[in-house]
Amino acid sequence: MSLRAIPLAELRRRLGRARSAAARRRLAEELAADPRAGARSLGERTLRALERERAERRRMTGLFALRRRLARDGARFVAGVDEVGMGPLAGPVVAAAVILPARVELPGLDDSKRLDRERREDLARRVRDQAVAVSVAEVEPREIERLNIYRAGLEAMRRAVLALTAAPDHVLVDARRIPDLASPQTPIVGGDGKDGSIAAASIVAKVHRDALMRELDARHPGYGFARHKGYATAEHLAALRRLGPCAVHRRTFAPVSQQGLF
């Protein structure tokens, strides 16, 4: 039977029941040439959706290209590591380390900064469900003050790697090299947007720290930690002027360190 004799509702069902992308594409291409405006629109929309899916598959393949090369060289467990919370005036620095299996199903995986809260939290759950190993480490404000923020970020990442239940054969790090690790490392500038394992770690770390800041908001009301996560927003600076710093502020960070402000 010619497609032109089939009602649009049935054509939609057939597209939904297609067993492969290739079958959907063949049907969509036929519909795009249909004289009926509704059928053409359905075919064209489906073709655009298929192209977006193909582009996403290519992107995901690229995110794990380095891991595949490392696997060919014998690396069974490749960990991605990233930290969050370097810039805020309050709260800990948090790092996560993630070892993903050879096959992952994480559509939409990306740098945590490019995702909204709902998508980040959904991906964090998926990462934890699928990962071979996941760990999170924190460096608290008093230790940040003692170490300095740069070394605190490295220490958080070092602790996260060492806490993994599976020892990594190779570690992929966002931009830096972690001291005192036995595993070989590859630093990748902008790694949370270029490598899938680092992106997964960035998401886990961000979701964990955001949850901590919501807890700190309940324990230290008035600063707005749940909203700004400790960053120097106008709301936060106004609260500092009004209330002064609390126990989770980083006292070596300006303007917290500028006592005359309070």
Mean pLDDT: 91
Largest sheet: 5 strands, mixed
Tell me, what's the shape? flat
In the CATH hierarchy, what is the superfamily of the largest domain?
Ribonuclease H-like superfamily/Ribonuclease H
What is the terminal separation in angstroms? 80 Å
Question: Tally of extended strands?
Answer: 5
CATH architecture of the largest domain: 2-Layer Sandwich
Residues in helix, %:
40-55%
Q: What is the name of the CATH class of the largest domain? A: Alpha Beta
Strand order of the largest sheet: 3-2-1-4-5
The number of helical elements comes to: 11
Please, could you describe this protein's structure?
With 262 residues, this protein is an alpha/beta fold. The chain folds into 3 domains: 3-63, no CATH class; 74-215, Nucleotidyltransferase, domain 5, CATH 3.30.420.10; 221-261, no CATH class. 51% of the residues lie in helices and 11% in strands. The chain contains 11 helices and 5 strands. The protein has helices spanning 8-17, 21-32, 37-63, 65-72, 117-130, 141-147, 149-162, 191-194, 196-219, 225-228, 234-243, and strands at 78-84, 93-99, 133-139, 170-174, 185-188. It has a 5-stranded mixed beta sheet with strand order 3-2-1-4-5. Strand 1 and strand 2 (93-99) form a beta hairpin. Helix 2 (21-32) packs antiparallel against helix 3 (37-63).
Could you give a quick summary of the protein structure above?
This protein has 262 residues and is an alpha/beta fold.
